[in-house]
Write the structure tokens for this entry.
Amino acid sequence: MASLPSPHLFPSAEAASKALASEIGELVASRAATGQPVVLGLATGSTPIGLYAELVRLHRNGLSFANVTTFNLDEYLGLPRDHKESYWHFMHDHLFDHLDIPREKIHIPDGSIPEEDLPNYCSEYENAIARSGGIDLQVLGIGRNGHIGFNEPGASSESYTHVTTLNEITIADAADSFGSPQNVPVRAITMGVRTILEARRVVLLAFGKSKAGIIRRALTPGVTSEVPATYLQLHQDVSFFVDEEAGSGLREQLGPE
Ligand code: GLP
């Protein structure tokens, strides 16, 4: 049994984002110094926007990302790349258009793959991760229902990249950006729980009061498929970077100051 993921409580989302950006920056620079690549697993959602802004700032200050390969966690199925809610669009807008990562090293699941090609496409995504040497550091957010990527309540711990159906809480949370719940795609391609657990290090970011309950649950001993983030308790090197609000239920886990 692995030890519980360690929570790091930051005074603000900005401080947490800066801490993770500087960890990533050091990893990228130290590997570059010895001519080695770095493989990053990346997430979408509002939570990592500050992290991406900080990585862009590091790049503007001289850090090259030319040795970086990226794999995104997930993508809505049925959305073309240029749809404003596609994760392809999100990632280019917030990060990739501003860094020097070679385009062929950027991997985001393609939401426009025809139905009959999806099984092969998903195994090929997984093969590409393996061929790259595996993910060094996986960035995660968390859904209010405990999802990681689009691994929804009920997800198997053994899943690799696959097609999934979105949970009603996930659809409700995405409804505003899509204009209405009816416009939210019902399916997505997502890395599986096993894919995430195979990353060498995982950092989960969570900010704001709406995440306090699920962060407390994710860090309470007990692994259950009903709260996929509890699978992270099985990983040897995972940190939760949370702000005061998201960490407000963690007093007992953190112990006395
Ligand atoms: C989406 C993404 C997740 C993300 C979650 C939380 O459903 N698929 O990867 O962690 O939303 O989003 P937010 O960061 O906006 O709270």
Q: What stands out?
A: The pocket of GLP is lined by residues 43-47, 73-74, 141-143, 149-150, 170 (CB under 6 Å). The two ends are 26 Å apart (CA to CA).
